[in-house]
């Protein structure tokens, strides 16, 4: 009986993985029907990451794994639709102000009427049946806004520098509206208690401004202001203070705020070099809180060890390299900035969540791209990949 259950469980895992991989492969075949050249590396990497997600979630919670497969299938369909609908990604720059406004409205609505879960107000509920995470949509919209605005004002931002400061009044004049939008977004993210997305969005802003101006002064000034703001927030917002306390005093607060990051470190330590094997150690909400989302990288390290964790990070590195190559080959400044912004979004998100699990920075609630459980994040990831593929197609034609 036990052997039968084991075999059926293994077949169930295999079928789930095949379903995830099959959805991405089918999407790739449908894209090839158009006949246009495009990047050939992104989709295989996405197939690997989504299949790994299904494997990890299968041993955490079979229901979540089944739902994740559904989101992968829907995401693959969204990818194909977006790829064909966006004839030229450069047309999106005409919608930059609408995208920025929509992002702010989404976040404001979430602050006012969002559903609070685990101390953060990140969700909107429709008809009490369907819920989604607006911040996942908002960050993609803000990348479009930032890329469009910087592409439009690029020549004005790259004015000759005065003196040794690397900054001019003309630069400040055109940076100010974008900076105000960024400050507003950061305030709304803090209002939602979505610290991870706030850090991610700030990083995107700094990266794109640096690409536009080539000035390290903007990076230093922005980082200084952000660190100052984060310090003030840690004193005035209890949820920020709790995250910082759990990071700095993990072991002293093990029975309270430090429990989650400590359990993540224990899971990584148990994995060792080669891992304990898939499904050997049961995962529950008690021994690894938020295992399917915040601590999915800890689950990966426990199952596959240091070797598997490093291998997965290498897959992300390949993904980021492919996205950067698309950005460099883009024919138009907007498409290049958009590709760079989308790639930076994936890179920063990976660094923030992995850094949090490794206790290099405070742990945040960001999902690990294509691996953490989440419908909204999975769909937006596929939309971002579709835009990258559309840009690579336009560069090759």
Protein architecture, described:
With 397 residues, the chain is mostly helical. The chain has 2 domains: 1-85 and 253-397; 90-236. The protein is built from 13 helices and 3 strands; from the N terminus they run ααααβββααααααααα. The protein has helices at residues 2-32, 42-60, 62-85, 96-113, 134-157, 169-192, 195-213, 216-236, 238-248, 259-271, 296-329, 333-357, 375-396; strands at 115-117, 120-126, 130-132. The chain has a 3-stranded antiparallel β-sheet with strand order 1-2-3, with helices on one face. A hairpin with a 2-residue loop joins β1 (115-117) and β2. It is globular, with a radius of gyration of 21 Å. The protein starts with a helix and ends with a helix. The model is unreliable at 1-8 and 160-166 (pLDDT under 50).
């Amino acid at each position: 009986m036990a052997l039968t259950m084991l075999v059926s469980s293994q077949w169930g895992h295999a079928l789930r993985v095949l379903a995830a991989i099959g959805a991405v492969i089918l999407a790739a075949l449908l894209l090839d029907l158009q006949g246009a050249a495009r990047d050939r590396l992104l989709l295989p990497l996405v197939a690997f990451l989504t299949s790994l997600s299904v494997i990890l979630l299968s041993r955490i919670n079979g229901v979540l794994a089944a739902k994740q497969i559904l989101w992968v299938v829907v995401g693959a369909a969204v990818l194909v639709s977006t790829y064909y609908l966006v004839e030229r990604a450069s047309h999106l720059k005409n919608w930059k102000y609408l995208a920025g406004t929509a992002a702010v409205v989404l976040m404001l609505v979430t602050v006012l009427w969002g559903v609070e879960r685990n101390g953060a107000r990140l969700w909107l509920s429709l008809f009490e049946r369907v819920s989604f995470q607006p911040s996942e949509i908002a960050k993609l919209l803000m990348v479009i806004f930032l890329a469009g605005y910087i592409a439009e004002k690029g020549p004005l931002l790259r004015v000759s520098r005065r003196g040794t400061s690397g900054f001019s009044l003309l630069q400040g004049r055109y940076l100010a509206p974008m900076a105000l939008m960024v400050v507003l977004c950061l305030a709304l993210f803090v209002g939602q208690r979505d610290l991870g997305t706030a850090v991610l969005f700030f990083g995107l802003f700094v990266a794109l401004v640096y690409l536009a101006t080539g000035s390290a002064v903007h990076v230093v000034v922005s980082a200084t202001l952000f660190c100052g703001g984060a310090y003030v927030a840690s004193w005035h917002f209890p949820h920020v203070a709790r995250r910082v306390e759990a990071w700095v005093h993990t072991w002293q607060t093990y029975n309270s705020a430090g429990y989650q990051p400590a359990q993540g470190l224990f899971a990584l330590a148990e994995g060792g070099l080669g891992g304990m094997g898939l499904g050997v150690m049961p995962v529950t909400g008690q021994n690894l809180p938020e295992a399917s989302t915040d601590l999915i990288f800890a689950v990966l390290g426990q199952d596959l060890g240091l070797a598997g964790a490093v291998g997965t990070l290498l897959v992300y590195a390949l993904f980021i390299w492919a996205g950067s190559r698309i950005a460099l080959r883009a024919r138009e400044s907007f498409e290049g900035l958009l590709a760079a912004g989308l790639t930076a979004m994936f890179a920063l998100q990976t660094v923030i969540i992995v850094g949090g699990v490794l206790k290099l920075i405070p742990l945040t609630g960001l999902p690990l791209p294509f691996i953490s459980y989440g419908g909204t994040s999975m769909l937006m990831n596929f939309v971002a990949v579709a835009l990258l593929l559309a840009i690579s197609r336009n560069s090759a034609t």
